[in-house]
Amino acid sequence: MVSAKIFVLAALATVACAKSRCKPTSTSISSASVPTPTLPSTGGSKEVPAPPPTAVLKKIAVGHGLQNYTCTTASQPTAAALGALAVLYDVTALYPGTPGSPLKDQEDFDALTTDFLWTHDLPINFVDAAAYVADTTNPFPAPAEAVLGGNLHIPFLGHHYFDFEAIPMFDLSTIGLKASVGKNDSAPAPAGADVGPSGTGAVAWLQLKESGKGRSVGLDLVYRVITAGGNPESCAVTGPATYSIPYSAFYWFYSLS
Ligand SMILES: *[C@@H]1O[C@H](CO)[C@@H](O)[C@H](O)[C@H]1NC(C)=O
Ligand SMILES: *[C@@H]1O[C@H](CO)[C@@H](O)[C@H](O)[C@H]1NC(C)=O
Questions:
Q1: Coiled-coil annotation: which residues (predicted)?
Q2: What pLDDT is stored for residue 32 in this prediction?
Q3: What spacing in Å lies between the alpha carbon of 178 and ligand 1's midpoint?
């Protein structure tokens, strides 16, 4: 994991096409076209349901933030999920094959969640950063782009949080779209997924569908894929406790037209 990460960051730092792995640009200029992004698959026995053929992909984001959990007793089989706080960054234009994307292939693109998780400071206001205790009255710093590997600038897109009814909300504030959603289906993250700085493992992949609460704008379906970190600790280890675990994930946002 560590060597793979260093390799990817080296690639990011060398945006100019100086490495042997870069293709000559002359072969692609005349045939340059925007690829149709394909939702990743876990490769396992369980997949999240594919988007319907009529679904229109609006954005691909990386979310970087915290998953929040609680254990009431040490004997509880798993911690209960309370919510999440994450900043969303727009990686749509980095999709491999998109003209102007400095990422050369799918591997570099898929590595973005790990790159965020291990090399980008959590974009959260903390009362205790070492223990991942967020300032929940004012959790988010002012909107700002992310910079990875020294020179990959990724635009701010919006925020992910749970609303006053504990319903997951994705507010893509820079483009005026919102998704208020609930879980429709899930699939375990692949065995090799990034376990994250807390070492607890990667949260499941999800298909989230519109909540019917009347709070969405222009979005109907959200996928969480290529997750890194975010799983809870065992309640036997923490005892009764409420705490947060850092994570990163891709979110794919669709409208059903
Ligand atoms: C986690 O959930 C608890 C209980 O709802 C809440 O008090 C705390 O502020 C939450 N922390 C974060 C980081 O969301
Ligand atoms: C929701 O999940 C069920 C069970 O996997 C699936 O049959 C259904 O197609 C999903 N809904 C959408 C909108 O994909």
A1: none
A2: 56
A3: 22
